[in-house]
Amino acid sequence: MGLLDRAGARLTAKPEDAEILVVNTCSFIDTAKQESVDTILEMARLKTAGSAKKLIVAGCLVERYRDEIKKNIPEVDAVVGTGELESILEAAGIAPMAVAAPSPFNILSGNGHAKIRSGRESGAGTHKTLPEAASFRAEGDHGEKQGRFSREEWQGAGHLLPTYLYNEDTPRFLSTGRTSAYIKIAEGCDHPCSFCIIPNLRGKFRSRRFESVVAEAQRLVAGGVQEITLIGQDTTCYGEDLGFKDGLATLLDALAGIEELRWLRFLYAYPNRITGRLLETIAKHDKICKYLDVPLQHASPEVLKRMKRGAGAEIFLKTLEKVRSAVPGIALRTSFIVGFPGESANDFEILEQFIGEAKFDWLGVFNYSDEEGSGAFSLDEKLQKRTIEARKRRLMKLQQSISKRAKQQWVGREVTLLAEGESEETPMLWEGRTQFHAPEIDGKVYINDFGSLETLRAGSFYRAAITEAHEYDVVARIVSDSL
Ligand code: SF4
Description:
Helix content is 30%, strand content 20%. With 483 residues, the chain is α/β, with parallel strands linked by helices. Bound molecules: iron/sulfur cluster (SF4).
């Protein structure tokens, strides 16, 4: 979006207004593929109806089904994989303009995929970006030799594994509003998890340069961003390929020094990479949200072994204890996969019991998705869909009761709240988040009382008292502006 914006395209979130439609896709599990295909077909219909001239498909679905997309959906004019982001300009038929210095990012109002309006705006310039040179870890090279990144069975995906990394000068176009922004600190993954094809889609693990991430954060904050969420397929490996030990902790230390930044968090920790230094860093800085997202995937040692992740409930409980004692009050999010091949009733019981003991603040459950190209694809003992669905429902019900009890403890607490705007459910309520809620994924704080304030500003911080608790969401009353 940043490249297109800088080249003079006007971006809109409304597809019916666009002359060029871009669908950015995901393809790591069935439901994501389905959503991507449904959106492409919806946009193809719009193009056929005559309101758009061009349809571009970008992202992970292209890495996997490049030829099939082009063959089966003739309305698609061009595809752009995850490693060839800069070819979006060529795909859109917009030549880059030779220019100049980095400029502040732009903001997209509204949600959804970027839809591009035609034409150039006079005076808009581009900045020539050079992707950062990728360096790889020994684990990645070893994994490659073992066939970890092989895409041979994927027709049409025979081209090179992506190595792209953006840098601090790559133009950005925020779709997350003015206050909050994600920064991708690393790309790809070297882990061998047998259910996962993300490494095949995204390539070997590689970190962005330390200075590049800091410079980007500084620029975002100078433009008004107050909350930064660091992402990557595995953030806790950050810097290993650059020779850093505890690279993420060092990066967090540096970013916490940015004066106007208010909240800083990272997502997707790998369980055995949560070091003492990382926890100390979270505890030490007020700006670092007391929040940890650590996808555990399962708790049965047998299943985890077949998943090629290792550990088990006992080890995880110790890790959680270490986290909670180093950072008191920290909110913990995790996700699990149910129905992995061979998951027995006993394995499921171990997982259920673990969830009961671990008491996560936020929990997601995914049904196992059998993906061609993953190690688990060839395993026997696949479970029936209805068994998988029933297990998922059972875990969600269990978590619902755990969450309800935990949220009741919130009532009476005073918190700092980021007001996000009117609720999608009713204009009578506003919605917000605390440091214990990551953007978009966790429960909500509904604001039903503005206290002495006439109105709230979306993207501003307030002090608020929690007055009611529901299963996942809470209700709050504004106490005052937060300085
Ligand atoms: S660590 Fe995450 S992205 Fe990497 S292989 Fe495992 S599940 Fe996939």
